[in-house]
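User: Could you check the structure of this?
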Amino acid sequence: IDHSFGPFYEEIEVGAIVVATGFELYPLKDIPEYGGGEIPDVIDALQFERLLAASGPTGGVVRRPSDGKIPKSVAFVHWVRSRDPEHGLLYCSGLCCMYLVKEAILYKQSVPDGKAFSFYIDIRTNGKGYEEFYERARENYDIVFIRGKPARIVQNGDKVQVWGTDTLTGNTIKLDVDMVVLAPAMIPSQSALELIKKLRLATDEYGWVKEQHLKLRPLEAMTSGIFIAGVAQYPKDITDTVAQASGAASKVLDLFSQPQIKRSPIIARVDADMCAGCGYCEKACAYEAIKVDPVLRVSQVNAALCEGCGACAAACPSGAVQLTNFFKNQLLAMVVEATREYE
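Assistant: Sure, the predicted C-alpha cells are below.
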C-alpha cells in the first residue's frame, strides 16, 4: 500500500456495473434512551469488533474506552432500532443476533472471569450451523440470555446501568456492568446515495437498491447493465453476500458473452400529433430517457435508455405517451374479451 497516493479522478468506459455499496449502522447519537452516544462505555458492535481484533487499537485486549480498564462485565443488546417501527425501522437486519453471540464468545475467551449478559427479543439462527453455535454459547460459555429489550441505559458512577424487564419472569432489572455493546440496525450507506442517484437506481422506502424481481431476477437492478451484490440490496450475512457477488459476476460474464445486446421491445412511444410539450413525462422519467425537444416542442424517447416502466405514460395528461405493445386500445380489447359473457 502506497500511503503517498493522493485523490485523483479517472474516466473509465465499462460495459457493466456491480453495485456493492455496503451499509452503515444506525447512529448511536440518534438513540437517546441508550445514552445518545454520550456514554463512552456504550459502543456499537463494530467498535467492539475492533477492540477484539489483534490489529485493533488495543492489540486484541478488550479495554473500556473511558479508562482503559479490562471490563469484567459486558451487556450485549440485540435489536437496537431493528423491528422497531415506532422509533426506528420495521425490518430485521438479519445477522445481528449471530454476530453479538460471536462477540460474546470472543469476550469470554479474552476475559475468562468476565460476565456476559445478552438482552434479546428472540434469537434468529437462520443459517447452517447457527443454532448449534447459539447453543454452544449458552452451554459452554455461561452467557446469560435475558429475554427483554432494555428501556434505558444510564451512567451510574463508573458503571453503566441497564434498565429493563425480563419478559419470561416478569422481573424488573437494573443491571450494573462495565460496558454495553449495542447491535444497531443496518441502514444503507449514506455516502452511496449520490452514486445511486447518478446511476438512476430505484430504491425501496428504506434506501436499499431495488432488484428487477425478488425471486426471478434478484441480481439485476432496475437499470439495464447494472447488477447488485451484497448489502446494497438488503441486510445479509457474509455467506449470502459471497453467493450474490458470485451470481452478479456470472451475470456480467453472460452479458459480455452475447454477440449482441438484447433489449425488451416494451418502450415508450410518443404520438407527436397529440404531444403538447408540457414536460410532465420528462419529470416523471427516472432514467432520463425522454426529453422535450426545445425546437419542435415534442417529447422524444431515447430507446437505449428507456426501461419501459410506464411512468411517463401515466404522467402524460394528453395520452400522447404509451408503451409499445401496451397501447390503450389493446388493453381495453383484452378487458372486453376477458369480461364478456361466454356461452
